[in-house]
Amino acid sequence: MVTNAECLSGYERYLTDEKRASKNTLSSYLRDVRQFGEYIEADGVDYVTADEDDLCGYIDHLRQAGKSVATVSRSIASLKNFYVWMVLRGYVETNPTGKLVPDKATHKLPEILTAQEVELLLAQPQCSDRKGYRDRAMLELLYATGIRVSELIGLDVTDLNLSAGIINCRGRNKVRAIPLYPKAIKALKDYVEFIRPEMLATPGERALFVNVSGERMSRQGFWKIVKSYQQKAGIEKDITPHTLRHSFATHLLENGADLRSIQEMLGHADISSTQIYSQLVKKQLKDVYVKAHPRA
Q: What whole-number distance in Å separates Cα of residue 254 and Cα of residue 277?
């Protein structure tokens, strides 16, 4: 199978020799494709095996990292061009970039789940086997803390302090302590004490959440878990791991939490990234007004 390095090298020759791309275009296209490759390699995925979920997850990652509309749109264009070439070369049979849509000039407000939809989703994992206990603990933890999926799968078992009711999350800039609600503590305690030891491939494994092979859970693996429970719950909204992060922040704001506290828990470097949730709450209030006011 062709390697990522071989794909990049061949694509560079194609842009240079056949497309006669300018230096700036060549540099930006290769940078975008290389960064995507580095992102998926962390999960053991390469350019050839990457699917639609990997592409969508990466673009969502860029948006949540605060990348500009122009940067995200350029990355999408770069990846679409790259996979057209991959299909032409016969490295992949189908182009996985079909669902990627460039951002408009203004950011679309993120979609969130209602409190009732969250409860429905969290109720899906059945604690009748190891997988059910693990999945419930992961979903409860994600909604309890609003951490990023990369932070979730990066947690070590030593990052838990269940007696104090907190997790220590190693974010991009610092470690932040985030409180847990009682149901999340219970789900994590059951998993850590009774289930995780039986799932480990090696006794020295540090990862808090492991896959069926007993090794650290991957981003791609968790993405598929969320999608499967969305289908089981019959929720029509397109749920991603970030949907629970958005829902966490919005529900806190709706119930009186201040933006600075939410910023700290989310690990946003700039409060402007957190202010989008204020816009979302205002939009929801306006929608309620329009539907309920007799003269609206």
A: 9
pTM of the full structure: 0.65
**Residue 44: strand, helix, or coil:** coil
70, pLDDT greater than 90: no
What does the alpha-carbon distance between residue 261 and residue 145 come to, in Å, rounded to a whole number?
12
Q: Is 66 left (phi over 0), alpha (psi -120 to 50) or beta?
A: left
According to DSSP, the residues that pair with 176 across neighbouring strands are 169
Judge whether 199 and 118 are in contact, CB under 8 Å. Answer: no
* Cα atoms in the 13 Å half-sphere on the side-chain side of 115: 6
Which residue has tokens 């998993």? 191
CA distances from residue 173 to 71, 100, 142, 239 in whole angstroms, order as listed? 22, 29, 19, 27
Are 167 and 141 in contact, with CB atoms under 8 Å apart?
Answer: yes
Separation between Cα atoms, residue 269 and residue 172, nearest integer Å: 9
* C-alpha pair distances (Å), 120 with each of 139, 146, 230, 280: 12, 18, 9, 22
pLDDT tens profile 133-159: 999 999 999 999 999 998 999 999 999
Cα(114)–Cα(256) distance, integer angstroms: 16
Q: Please give the structure tokens belonging to residue 225.
A: 């878990």
216-253 pLDDT per residue, tens: 999 989 999 999 999 999 999 989 888 999 999 999 99
Burial of 47 (0-12, 13-18, 19+ CB in 10 A): buried
Q: Measured between alpha carbons, how far is 1 from 22 in angstroms, rounded to an integer?
A: 30
User: How would you list the strands of the sheet with 166-170, edge to edge?
Assistant: 160-161, 166-170, 175-179
Domains of the chain plus CATH, in order, are: 4-88 (1.10.150.130), 115-290 (1.10.443.10)
